[in-house]
Amino acid sequence: MRVASPKKMGLPARTFVTLLRLAPSGIQNRMWKWWYQKMANANDDREFRFMNYGFEDGKGPELEAEDEPNRMFIQLYSMNIRGVELEGKQVLEVGSGRGGGASWIAKTHKPAKLTGVDFSAKAVGHCQRWYADQTNLEFIEGNAQDLPFDDASFDVVYNVESSHCYGDMGAFVEQAFRILKPGGMFCWTDLRDTKTMETLPSLFESKGFEIVESADVAQEVIRALDEINETKMKAIEEKVPNSVRRSFETFAGIKGTPVYEGFVSGLMAYHRHLMRKP
After folding, report:
1. What is the Cα–Cα distance from 60 to 75, expressed in whole angstroms?
2. Which CA distances in Å does 193 have to 12, 19, 171, 248, 273?
3. Which terminus in the chain has less CB density within 10 A, N or C?
4. Residue 249 lies in a domain
5. Mean pLDDT lowest for which of 15-19, 135-139, 241-245?
6. Residue of 256, 245, 250, 215 whose CA lies nearest to 80
7. 149: exposed, middle or buried (C-beta count within 10 Å: 0-12, 13-18, 19+)?
8. How does pLDDT run across 202-217, given as a tens digit for each residue?
9. Are 159 and 94 within 8 A, CB to CB?
10. Please, how many CA atoms are within 13 Å of residue 10, restricted to the half-sphere of its CB?
11. For position 216, which CATH number holds?
12. Comparing 34 with 230, which gets the higher pLDDT?
């Protein structure tokens, strides 16, 4: 099967990374919101429940048969919350997307309540229908930079491959700190250009968080992307309209696209930070 080249996908990896870093925050926020709404509108298939790049380190959780096809995506969520107790807790996912990760965590880790918040009204609507039978799970529309929750409302806040869309990362981190209870945990996993990624630990600490663990997981993400490349391409070919197919390939990190090539070259980084509110 032919893989589109970075040139045909629109941007070389270096240009993509530069735009990701330098675009004004307000423009970034509006563009990403438009993009996610477009993605939600283009596909309302419940089987398309995950929008992350995946993770593979050979230490994935045991899965039920119905979840096995989404193993690589679920493993990214599992890695992000690794070592954090969720059972009986009040948990928030910021950037819940199509809800697959929140659904799996609510089912498997049994929090008292898991709330997913996302700025795409269309995606929230999908999730409210698709997961209505899970009584400890809800989805609401909201802005990560101005979260609609009271102070000290949650025991755990997690964020998976979403914050690169936010125009003001500092505002988001402040919000995560505000809504966590003292001693609460903040689980963060995402991609950035390498230079920007180097600045994030000091940003987290400047907002009051203690960093408990940190890891560079780019190689594990590349391994997952390689593992599911053909499956993703086939799914996009079968389920995505021609008019947005190339955009979906880029978004999915198909081999040859700017994001994938950025990870391979080292221009793009992918890290995990586990943090605590004192």
Report:
1. 6
2. 14, 10, 20, 20, 16
3. N
4. no
5. 15-19
6. 215
7. middle
8. 999 999 999 999 999 9
9. yes
10. 12
11. 3.40.50.150
12. 230
CA distance 109 to 272: 20
Q: Is residue 173 part of a domain?
A: yes
Q: What is the CA radius of gyration of the chain?
A: 18
Please name which of 104, 129, 99 lies closest in space to residue 116, comparing C-alpha atoms.
Answer: 99
Distance CA(22)–CA(166), nearest Å, equals 13
Beta bridge partners of 185: 156, 276
Length of the chain as a residue count: 278
Supply the angle between the helices 13-22 and 258-265 in degrees, to the nearest 10.
90
Q: Which of 65, 29, 78, 69 is nearest to 49 (CA)?
A: 69
Q: Does residue 27 lie within any of the structural domains?
A: no
Tell me, yes or no, whether 272 lies in a domain: yes
Q: 105 is written with which tokens?
A: 């965590």
Sequence-separated contacts (24+) of 170-175 with Cβ below 8 Å = 170/203, 170/207, 171/145, 171/146, 172/94, 172/144, 172/145, 173/203, 173/204, 173/207, 173/209, 174/207, 175/144, 175/145, 175/146, 175/147
The total domain count for the chain is 1
Are residues 201 and 169 in contact, defined by beta-carbon separation less than 8 angstroms?
Answer: no
pLDDT at 3 over 50: no
- Give the tens place of pLDDT for each residue, 32-47: 555 555 555 555 556 6
Beta partners for residue 141, in sequence order: 118
Token digits of residue 186: 């903040």
Position 247 scores a pLDDT of 72
Backbone phi and psi for residue 182, each to the nearest 5 degrees, phi listed first: -55, 130
The token duo for 271 is 């890290």
- Per the structure, the complete domain to which residue 122 belongs is given by 38-226+268-276
Q: Which residue has the higher pLDDT, 274 or 14?
A: 274
